[in-house]
# Entry
Amino acid sequence: MGKAITRAGAPGTRRLNEAELDRLAPQLIIVRPGQRFGDFRIEYFGSDLERVSGDLTGTSFADLLHIGHMRSCLAGYRNVCDTRLPELLRNQPIAGTPNLRYTRLLLPLFTGDRVTRIIGAVSLLEQAPALDRGAPQARIY
# Structure
């Protein structure tokens, strides 16, 4: 599929094998970068991720930017494309879903010196529901 990424952002020599990909597939997202951020397109969306967001395979980022929490989730892909370096986020909250957090590793894949795909491995972490303390008061007197 692609080559592993070294710390410098250039392709390494280790290739992912099919058994590794099959095991990871439910937690993977593969994105094809575009000229503009909205042109980025999801080419593969794993089944574990579908349970939270539905199947987003084939969806462009432009179609998702109106969803508040998606803008921050997707920004990392632009950063990886621009810097050509992997990105790791740990235990990030998902806005609007107080009981869900995720850890995500984004790896750029190259054709020559151009990032042509970004593979994301996402692990969803569920947390116990927070106590409902009611809505905060508009004013404190």
Summary: The mean pLDDT is 77.
